[in-house]
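Entry 14. Two folds queued back to back today. First construct below, sequence then structure tokens.
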Amino acid sequence: MKRLVRFVVMAALAVGLAGPVSPGAAAASGHHRFTALVFSKTAAFRHDSIPAGVAAIQQLGARHHFRVDATEDAAAFTDANLARYDVVVWLSTTGDVLNDAQQAAFERYIRAGGGYAGIHAASDTEYDWAWYGGLVGAYFRDHPGSVSPQFQVATVKVLGRDTAATRPLPRRWEREEEWYNFRTNPRDTVRVLAEVDERTYDPRGYSLPGGSPGMGPHHPISWCQPYDGGRVFYTAMGHKAEYYSDPLLLSHLLGGIRMAAGVAPFHCGRPD
């Protein structure tokens, strides 16, 4: 029924509704398994990797038969427009990007069973919107970059192979990243899919003189959860443009987006 409603809405709406939404390469194909909106508006720090991230997700859509639209226009957050999508991907958004009406529309979208996939700085977004903080799971605090290098190679421990986001990954995955520290540890309310091993790099962040502490022996870096009627996937990985050509990261993103869209099994129940 939900897909039928979306079909009726799409038929009734003009293609250009809610501002400049550019269709991805998958839009030209005749059959889409699901539809994704990539949202990358920034009101604070802007990552120069955003174009590479958008292009990578569009290429994933073309290869795996899902439609990808991309926008930085917050006017896309209306009930009618959001109903066109199975998942909204927040790609390195920062700061306060939605007004009150747009926030309310996104809350209704999630409560109606919509999907959210957050990538990297999506956790550095909307600090004054408590509902969003619960959705993303944890807010960004800092990352290495004062007493320790900003970008470091570390080992990611993949926890469980029963999800689309983790199945393609090695159990221990060495990669370079800007490793985020979070204001709170979300592991009591989310299912952690991957954590970064602080023994393999220097996690001290820049927010305190001499370096703020990391997050300890269990440092979540990717997770998922059911939230307020919807499906959530988040990963803090994805800072540099070159990372979006890494097949392992792309497989992680693809699996997480598919889970949030509801087309891959969502084994993301909260911990006991």
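Second construct, same run, same settings:
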Amino acid sequence: MAIVDAAPSQPLASTGAAPRGLDRRRFGAMMLAAGAGSLLPGRPALALPASDEARVIDFEWVDAARDRAVPARLYWPAASARKGPVPLIVFSHGLGGSRKGYSYLGEGWSAHGTASLHIQHVGSDESLWQGNPIMLLDRLGGAADEREAIERTRDVSFGLDRLLQRDGPFHAAIDRTRIVAAGHSFGANTTLILTGAQVIRDGKPLGFRDPRFTASIVISAPPFYGEADLPAVLAAVDVPTLHVTATEDTIRIPGRYSPVQDRLDVYAAIPTPQKTLVVFQGGSHSVFTDRSLRNGGPLNPLVKRATAEVGLAFLDLVHKSDPVPLEDWSATWKPILAAAPTPFQVDARQWARKRRA
């Protein structure tokens, strides 16, 4: 179905300088929110974390039905950042990634009261870079085939099941009405499948939708390779969707090439008007991973922070029908955007009720 950027992740780097035109106080707050200093080392969760510190919690789950390990990392907000039941984003990494990657998203989101669960897909994770280099292309090909695409969706649903299980510490703490699927590259395809994308096999639709997801964040989505009719594949995707890409977001690995236009085509093929597209000016396909300055130079950490923040603004748009955070975000980050985010159809009645209140 899909294949993605083939490069291991590295730690986030920071320039420490605000871009021209950004509000200094707002940028400073984002700098602090993106920092790792408030997070504690991962550890098994025996009880709901209650201290006023954000937490990183690692899980070593195994799906016995598939005899498949499903490691995961949870970024849990500090008590002071939580306001009632906690929204949850479930994140799927790109090809060759792991639960440790995309830490800037987990840190940034949890700093503002939104938990994120990062699933590791053992059939297409960092283990691809291990072993005989001569066999790397074979490993990449196997990791990006249709069977692994399906197993990835099952990984995500299984991880969500485990986090929400009735006897677990997070069962009552997570807001079931605000659970969002998210992913980068191959993980973006995983997200689309979980929210309605399907293909026809033997004359029948094949899909793995998880109805618990109320929205999706799709970062650098490749096309569904081998599928000629993209609108048909995405016809059933009806949840609100945020699409994020960059003007140099091109995928180049042996056997696969995907230009930036593919990201725009995926956005265009989503049928619901409750969608918006964010395009950064510059930045490679891997600028959204934890890889640092050599991919995008000084732009790299800015794109990361802006991506984390636009995810939160999008959740306000979807779950509160409040367009103001996205409007403010667009004004703040205008210096590094190729264009303003595309219009999103807000529930006008809900927004009117909110303004009257």
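Quick look at the second one. The longest strand covers residues 174-184. The chain has a mean pLDDT of 80.
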